[in-house]
Amino acid sequence: MSQSALKSSPVPVKGVQERERPSTGRRMAEAAEKSWRPLALLLVCFGAWWVIAAAELVEPYLVPSPGRTLDVVLDKPDYLWHHSWVTTYETLIGFVIAVGVGILSAVVMVYSSTVEKTLYPVLLFAQVVPKIAIAPLFVVWLGFGIAPKILIAVLIAFFPVVISMVTGLKAVDPEMLELSATMGASPWQTFRKIRFPASLPHLFSGLKVAVTLAVTGAVVGEFVGANEGLGYVILQANGNLDTPMLFAGLLVMSLIGVVLFVAVEVAEKLLLPWHASRRDGTAVTTY
């Protein structure tokens, strides 16, 4: 049979898989199936919180009731919104910088063993140093503006990005690299067509960790020196023994982390529909 006949033949080749796109109802059912357990756990936690507060097992000034905490949120929405936006802005800027610098550093280390041997111990040392200990230095050097908060967020979020990217770039099948070299592909073509796409699943795993750590970094910077942001709100509430506001700040901070995590998760689903981790719940037909 000629090659043109093979190309035009409608007979499916054995081993080729066709993925059927699930219906909207099915996707909603799958989402509900995955979501009800964590939602149930949250309801149990809030129920236990309510019981402890209602039974006065702990003094109200130590653990306020969920209702009192909600009243604080509803009474001061503008106040919490302003400080939440400041923390979110610091987090996003720090996260974007960490992603850019982390990916670039990972690429350089993978393509240069000398740079990797030189830079990796420094990165490890920088990671183990407590950021809360060096945050005052950044305030002294950079002042009480937004720069120290962004820098701390970058330092905390940078390590997971660079480590996951290095792992992804090195996890490429050597046979694929040999094949690309045999076919005369340039290093840039090999990186763009093989290495980078193969590293994306590892990279997104690091991004989901990094984006939540970036929130922590921004708040840590606000703890050290700031006049706005959720870290400032929590410190002020702690100094005034205003535990309802303190709990409200903690809940809003956690919500920001969850929203950013979900945003990265959605981006992963949109950019990596071909990855094996995204095939759960989809029908596969094998010929």
Write up this protein.
The structure is a single chain. The protein has 287 residues and is mostly helical. The chain folds into 2 domains: 22-57; 65-275, MetI-like (MetI-like fold), CATH 1.10.3720.10. Helix content is 77%, strand content 3%. It contains 11 helices and 2 strands. Strands 1-2 form a two-stranded antiparallel sheet. Helix 4 packs across helix 11 (243-271). The longest helix has 38 residues, at 187-224. It is globular, with a radius of gyration of 25 Å.
Which structural traits does this protein have?
single chain; 2 domains; 77% helix; 11 helices; disordered N terminus; 287 residues; disordered C terminus
Topology summary:
Layout (H helix, E strand, L loop, with lengths): L2 H6 L8 E4 L3 H31 L11 H10 L1 H35 L1 H16 L2 H12 L4 H24 L3 H9 L4 H38 L5 H10 L3 H29 L11 E4 L1
Antiparallel strand pairs: 1-2
Helix pairs in contact: 3-11, 4-5, 4-7, 4-9, 4-10, 4-11, 6-7, 6-9, 7-9, 8-9, 9-10, 9-11, 10-11
Approximately how much helix is present in the residues?
over 70%
CATH first level of the largest domain: which class?
Answer: Mainly Alpha
Number of helices: 11
What is the terminal separation in angstroms? 21 Å
Low-confidence parts lasting 5 or more residues at pLDDT below 50?
A: 1-18, 281-287
Shape: globular
Sheet with the most strands, sense and barrel status: 2 strands, antiparallel
